[in-house]
Design goal:
Blueprint (H helix, E strand, L loop, with lengths): L2 H12 L3 E3 L10 E10 L9 E12 L2 H16 L4 E10 L8 E12 L1
Parallel strand pairs: 1-2
Antiparallel strand pairs: 2-3, 3-5, 4-5
Helix pairs in contact: 1-2
Amino acid sequence: MTIHATVTAALSAVLANTWAVELPADPTWPALVFDVDSTPETGWVLGAGYDQHVVAVVILARERTEIATLRPQIEAALQAIPGYMADEEHGDADYADDPSVYAYFMNFRIRTPH
């Protein structure tokens, strides 16, 4: 299974309204949007080569309480992925398409063998 498929499955288990890269036209709330930036590790590693993936997740919701409820569930879902390394950063974000929608970003690092 690819890292994209693994992340999609993990996040969709938290919230079915999960999208890769961008929301559809006329989205519903709450929603999750994620992107994966993968980089091969260039140094020698015993056993195999590895890729590091930064998984960026944005929670979009009409209520702050929805974000507070989803955050720990997202963290737990991604921590369960083999190769999970860290929650690198998180914080408030903006959703320019609709100022009445709250947004929160979370970046995670996951390491997988090639």
